Fold:
Amino acid sequence: MSRRHPGRPSIAPVIALAFLALIPAVLFAYGWRWAAGRVPKEISDPPVADAAAPPALALATPILSIRRAPQTLATVKSEEGLVAQLNDVAVNTINEQSCLVVTLDGRTVFDHGGDTPVTPASNEKLLTAAVALKALGPDYAFTTALKGNLVDGVVDGDLYFVGGGDPLLSTNDYVTSNLKYPPFNVTSLEALADNLVAAGVTRVRGKVVGDESRYDAERYVPTWASDIKDQEAGPLSALMVNDSTRQIGTVRRWTDNQGGPAAGAARTLAALLQDRGVAVGGGSAAGSAPPDAPVLASVQSQPMSAIVQEMLTTSDDNTAEMLLKEVGLAVGGAGTTVAGAQAASTTLQGMGIDIGKLNIVDGSGLDSSNIVRCNILIQILAMQPLDGPIATGLPVAAQTGSLATEFVDSPIAGQLHAKTGSLSNVKSLTGYLPTAAGTIELSMILNGQNVGNEGNYLPAWNALGSALATYPSGPPVDQVQPR
Structure:
């Protein structure tokens, strides 16, 4: 998208189109007058006017007046007002490290630093969502399987719990625990245990063995800050249950020192099986299933469209990282973050998105070396239907997800649908605002020292919200109609 001066949007094409639309009417009017002059006098002469009749009223609006296109005039005036407001926001809040781009139904009306490379924080998840939907498909589902040799209701040897990369494999007590953003659209681990019982299994002679071999065993992106690991995301694994939580209600995770996520998942499943009367003789561990082990039971995740919605609404970092690894496996042949990042760039470019200055390091945006541009995020938004999984998954101002406590007293409360992002030096906001005169798409990425602190970003957010709330602000159509 082209970059425009923030204070001077181009409205000349709109006015020119309005006058072009009037040309047929003008030609018709002058043609009619010419034809009237050709009629014989005895036919064309009007009857003598009644002296008592009121004089004919003359039109006050010239035939070649913008008032002959009132809706166009009202729209132009609204856009002029919006751009003026946005220009004030940019002048007062956007530094040279940041960007603000606003479009209307996909048409750029304001671009301030739209091609400036910025760190996006969790706005990175918009890229991950778009790539996952494109590379894997909206109907794609993860499959988690239980494998082993079954003889007369008994698993003869170990029961292999094979992870399929499902980021939302959860137990009921985890979903209902006191989490800030509880996961939804989850895959029930209880359902997998029930399916094994339904297959006729009554006892496991050996161990429950967790198999995470679908992806690599890298638990964290190497360049993540130390306070991110385990607190925000990880440890990552192709077999994660309850986000690798070791003790529900705490932030304790199944790190490798405690056996790792796969061993923890196996232990959780073994407990569920024993609750259902299935005896497990050998406990639990991590390992790999034999290639030819038969499938005894399985469970599928919800479709990718639902997983993307959950990731955006709750800003789910683990889901974002797992999706990137799955994209890496599907496109690049390796379930790694590096392969996923390379595949993501290739996929975005194949979608027609300008990936200049783009640097993808992870799927969640937790790494401060991720680089994007506001115009890339706007391009992604422009490709998404308003009833699609990305648009419907975005938090709603003053209502849901990471926007539940934002814009509470603003006119755009309940109207703005946007993804937020926060790091100490980043605050981002990208999304949609439906209005009576079209849909506004916006991306504001603030970078700067401690800009993530509320006192530093709130003035910019409030100013942006106030500016957006003024649209449409042009005169009513009935006030600019011909007179």
